[in-house]
């Protein structure tokens, strides 16, 4: 049977792949090639078995020369100079959805708007006859699924996620933190120092994940990144790519490389049109120029310690395709067209919160989207939920289970040392703040605060800041 499908070009490309591996590695790697040509090959090949999972076998293709020419690279570099902010502000002014949001914000205030958003989501679920997330999970805990409900508690914290400010040079249509150049909230030095003190008392943490807004444009970014590295921790910069090209940021990419900071960068598509629709005019070219810059410093190269990962999120109300398959496609497209390399692709689900929730509501699609998420609930995704081993801290030091809860103003449950003091003396909020803890061990085993948006994390293969959770 195999003989009939393993002919001609397939066999030729297989030979290429095998020979190139033999040149560069050792004979042991042959066993991973799962030879399907064992019966019709020349006698120089060893006999090996083919496993049944033939769909998992990938043939390596020779890398073509990237299409982009030297002149085009020069033009790209020239055209992507200057700040994106004037363009972003112009687009915000001309965008009816943004204007409506701003008016509502002025009229109702952030707190009331967030409450309304949560009511709309819950109403959509009520219309579908679906209970709250917590009750849903309880009822999904069966003998075969295991006790899913017990997973909704904090484990030892491994990742310390800092949202250091909402200022951003972009204003993307799906942004769940509603960032833009108009947001000025930023972490100050006093709060940054307290975060570092807690970090130094928290041995279970291995990674500091710095996000925003555009974190590099926030005043405390370099201080936090450098000091966290000195504590021996991994540091992630959640980078929108274009921030690296803003005036005044000329040495930021070099700073990232010098400190071996992991870059996780948003690029929702490899096509200019799709990226510009979701993230704003001119964003695609600047993103490509930044990726080339990061590659030139060693980021994303196979033998380099400098890690560069990309993030895909769907452009509309649908779930992401397979992370592994899409990664192959991204790698091909970005290499073939621009000569860009990166390590891994993370796919994340669009959470029905903030701008994306408004987008769905205005199009009368919120109910359908919630239904899609619930229909695709996957109990296996729950063990890897990021709210279990993350702690999330906002720019003024409030504590949350995750970044989404932060945006919905749903603080973490009270920690013991907080007592009954209410509101919190540092933040004016009822929930705990970084000033209430000495170590993240104090939040272990707390119940995670959930709501209807959590269905976004448990749909399909699950979703987190590190991609799928299954
Ligand atoms: S999605 Fe990221 S890049 Fe876009 S506005 Fe929000 S924080 Fe900025
Ligand atoms: S939104 Fe996701 S990460 Fe956050 S609490 Fe809900 S399930 Fe956990």
Protein described:
- The structure is a single chain.
- The protein is an alpha/beta fold.
- It has 2 domains: about 1-55, no CATH class; about 75-455, Alpha-Beta Barrel (TIM Barrel).
- The protein contains 17 helices and 8 strands.
- The chain has helices at about 1-5, 10-25, 70-80, 85-95, 95-110, 110-125, 135-140, 190-200, 220-230, 250-260, 270-280, 285-295, 325-340, 355-360, 365-375, 385-390, 405, and strands at about 160-165, 205-210, 235-240, 260-265, 310, 345, 390-395, 400.
- The protein has an 8-stranded mixed beta sheet.
- α9 links the parallel β2 (about 205-210) and β3.
- The model is unreliable at about 1-40 (pLDDT under 50).
- One iron/sulfur cluster binds near residues 172 and 175.
Task: Compute the number of strand runs.
Answer: 8
Class by helix and strand content?
Answer: alpha/beta
Strands side by side in the biggest sheet: 6-5-4-3-2-1-7-8
Would you state the CATH class of the largest domain?
Alpha Beta
Low-confidence stretches: 1-42
Largest sheet: 8 strands, mixed
N-C termini distance: 34 Å
Q: How much beta, percentage-wise?
A: 5-15%
| Structural domains: how many | 2
Rounded average pLDDT:
86
Q: What's the CATH architecture name of the largest domain?
A: Alpha-Beta Barrel
Radius of gyration: 24 Å
- Approximate helicity band: 25-40%
Count the helices. How many? 17
User: Could you tell me which ligands this complex binds, including any ions or cofactors?
Assistant: iron/sulfur cluster
Q: Can you tell me the CATH topology of the largest domain?
A: TIM Barrel
Order of helices and strands: HHHHHHHEHEHEHEHHEHEHHHEEH
**Shape, principal axes of CA atoms:** globular
């Amino acid at each position: 049977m195999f003989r009939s499908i393993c002919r001609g070009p397939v066999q030729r490309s297989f030979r290429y792949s095998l020979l190139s591996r033999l040149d560069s590695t050792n004979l042991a790697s042959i066993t991973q090639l799962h030879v399907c040509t064992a019966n019709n090959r020349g006698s120089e090949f060893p006999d090996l078995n083919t496993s049944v999972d033939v769909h998992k076998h990938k043939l390596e293709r020779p890398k073509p020369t990237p299409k982009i020419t030297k002149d085009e690279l020069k033009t790209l570099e020239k055209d992507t100079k200057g700040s994106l902010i004037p363009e972003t502000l112009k687009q915000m002014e001309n965008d009816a959805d943004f204007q409506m949001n701003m008016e509502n914000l002025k009229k109702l205030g952030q707190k009331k708007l967030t409450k309304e958003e949560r009511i709309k989501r819950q109403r959509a679920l009520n219309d579908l006859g679906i209970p709250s997330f917590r009750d849903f999970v309880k009822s999904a805990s069966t003998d075969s699924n295991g006790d899913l409900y017990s997973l909704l508690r904090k484990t030892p914290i491994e990742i310390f996620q800092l949202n250091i400010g909402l200022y951003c040079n972009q204003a993307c249509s799906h942004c769940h933190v509603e960032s833009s150049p108009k947001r000025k909230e930023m972490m100050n030095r006093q709060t940054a120092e307290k975060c570092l003190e807690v970090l130094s008392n928290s041995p279970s943490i291995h990674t500091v994940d710095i996000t925003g807004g555009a974190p590099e444009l926030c005043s405390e970014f370099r201080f936090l990144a450098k000091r966290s590295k000195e504590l021996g921790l991994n540091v992630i910069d959640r980078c929108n790519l274009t921030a690296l090209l803003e005036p005044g940021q000329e040495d930021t990419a070099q700073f990232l490389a010098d400190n071996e900071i992991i870059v996780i960068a948003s690029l929702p598509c490899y096509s200019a049109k799709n990226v510009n629709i979701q993230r704003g005019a001119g964003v695609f070219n600047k993103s490509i120029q930044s990726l080339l810059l990061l590659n030139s410093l060693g980021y994303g190269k196979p033998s380099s310690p400098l890690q560069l990962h990309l993030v895909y999120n769907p452009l509309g109300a649908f779930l992401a395709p397979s992370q592994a398959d899409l990664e192959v496609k991204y790698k091909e497209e970005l290499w073939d067209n621009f000569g860009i390399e990166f390590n891994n692709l993370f796919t994340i689900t669009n959470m029905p919160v903030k701008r994306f929730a408004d987008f769905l509501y205005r199009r009368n699609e919120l109910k359908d989207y919630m239904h899609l998420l619930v229909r695709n609930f996957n109990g296996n995704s729950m063990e890897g939920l990021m709210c279990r081993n993350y702690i999330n801290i906002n720019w003024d030091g409030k504590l949350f289970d995750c970044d989404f809860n932060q945006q919905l103003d749903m603080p973490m449950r009270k920690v013991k040392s907080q007592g009954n003091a209410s509101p919190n003396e540092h933040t004016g909020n009822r929930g705990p703040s970084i000033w209430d803890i000495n170590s993240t061990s104090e939040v272990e085993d707390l119940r995670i605060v959930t709501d209807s948006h959590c269905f976004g994390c448990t749909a399909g293969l699950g979703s987190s800041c590190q991609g799928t959770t299954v």
